[in-house]
Amino acid sequence: MSTHPTLGTTLEQSASRVPGKDALVYPRREQRLTYEEVDAAADRLANALADLGVGRGDRVSTMLYNGTEICLTLYACARLGAVFNPMNYRLPAGEVEFIANDAGSTVMVYEADTAEAVEGARPALETVEEYVYVPDPGEERGGETPGGTRGFYDLLDSGADERPAVAVDEEDVYGLMYTSGTTGRPKGVVHTHRDMVDHNMLALAEGGLRHTDTGLSVMPLYHAAELHARLLPLIHRGCTNVLYHEFDPEQTLRAVEEHEVTTMFLAPTAWNAVALTAAQGEFDLSSLRMGLYGAAPMPGQVLENCKEQLCEDYVQAYGMTEIGPAGVFLYEDEQEQKQGAAGRPGLNHEMRVVEPDADPDATVGTDEVGEILLRSNSLMNEYWNRPDATAESIRQDDEGRTWYYTGDLGRVDEDGYLYVIDRKDDMIISGGENVYPTEVEDVLFTHEDVVEAAVVGEPDEEWGERIVAYVVGDVSAEELDRFVRESDELADFKRPRAYYFVGELPKNPSGKVQKFRLRSDGDEAGEPEGVEVAE
Known about the structure:
The protein is α/β, with parallel strands linked by helices and 535 residues long. Helices cover 30% and strands 27% of the residues.
């Protein structure tokens, strides 16, 4: 049996070091749980789940917003060797059904805000034997729950106090994280305790976490970015973690002020919303010292706004659920000099750029565009039930070293900094020319009235594909076409030939636009008004 720590033992270690320190603060329920209390609650919940028949390797799914409940469920699973499977709380019944059945879940934990989707999926859930309901703060413990459902806090109170007598190994599966998908059906990413503890250490070092830090979770904890790059490392370090049910810009600022938050993760779009809100009000944000962001580069103007309104230092993490998710970092002193870059590989990580789909040794030259490959101690084991997808994504080089094919296109400059160009599947071939949507989007974003933009290819008999743009903003197609034509940043053959104006763009939980939904059915983005522009 290995002595490498598991996620359960990282909590135990923090509880031993700082037992009386606040670990989880959840204002929605007026809860302040110390490390000693979280450690004990994880044991009780683990024992209660064991009494329901949950054992090593069994999958426990959650449909939960941020709160102490999702954290306790994670650590209870870790104590049992059970597999934690957090689902996107915005999923409709059909997708809940797909994931729960694909995972083979035995327990489903959910709450009032997700009850409609879970109850809608329930008749078709083939393996779920127990349903656990988290009451709203206004609902009484022990009160009425949906039919055939156990109350979360009743279950928690019923568990024995002792540590479960389960020898959890570092190679046991910790979690089954379904990718939110930018190209289609989500796939289950399998992570072990070992690779997740290693990722904790990476995030601790690269994110500059201190034992005195107070973190704030407003991005969804079902997603690897918030969960694996912030919450779990903060717990490992023995920091205080403030949990908010979901993201709201003003509430986020009030939380920073009230709880003296020192660090938090947000997607660039959320950072922008918080900075704009801060500029319109009075907030004491002097405690905030470090911001982490990912999912996309921070636009120069957004970074400037954030530095002016919030704090000076920011770190970008690039990666994906499959590698933990963080693997490439752009540090605080590099933000302006290398604006637009993803950064350089983090500790114990390696990176290559190769010809798309080619062998790992088919690297391209400096500043040449190719597919991004990563090596990581935190690399997933496999895609659950997807051997073909696993074989396509995880390959070995001539020396037997394992590389992950990200599906992203990028280039590396002479200083070793990675620039992510686009998704491989999103590249447009128009008239035999390769067009990367991000270079078109970057020009559109410089128009002051464009809030969001996404560029995709549409089938075209003459050109193979024509370039079209989906835009959120108070601007006309004629204005945008004139603006693009006058720009020195874009060749004419890359200019959009049609604009669709929508209320919002479809995104996954990390904030990335799901372009496959735009390509398959523009109505997914809202009610688009297509406007052709002159050739």
